[in-house]
Amino acid sequence: MPSSSCERLPQPPDSSARPSVSNISLADVESGEVRRVIKAWRHWCGFSSLPTRDKLVPRDLGPALANVSVARVNGDDYVFAVIGEVHVQAYGRNFQGRLLSEVLAAAPRFGRQLKASYDFVRTTRRPLGFRGMIGHDVPDTRFSWFETVYLPFGTPAGGVDHILNAAVYSWQGPG
Fold this sequence. Notes:
This protein is an alpha+beta fold. Helix content is 26%, strand content 26%. It has a six-stranded antiparallel sheet, sandwiched between helices.
């Protein structure tokens, strides 16, 4: 499967349906790119429940690095420190260096969903995964299907200071 562009995976024939998104566990992830990121994250954890940000080694991700974004916790907001090319292709924008609150202002529905995911991971210190279809009621996307995980990075004091997101996207239509 390609790793530097949106992944093309089987999907139901009608992507115009209302969104159908489900929580998934890390064990249920199907995408090779996302599984590679999870494997690296677990390696970085070592014997700790969470790795610290300094453990993140981009070369451990290989080609899956294009599927990764990293957000730094900034109070109740998040700063996008890294945005992989696959995310840029899927959304048609690069939010690197921008605040999540700016995304929320530009695309309220998507921003609220994204903030809820980041907030969950930050407050629970647990990974979070989703897979599903996006319908035409989410017009700012260039994809119809996705699989994604959010992986926390901890601080010595026990908080979460960074969240890594790994995702694959696919869409129907011509190449």
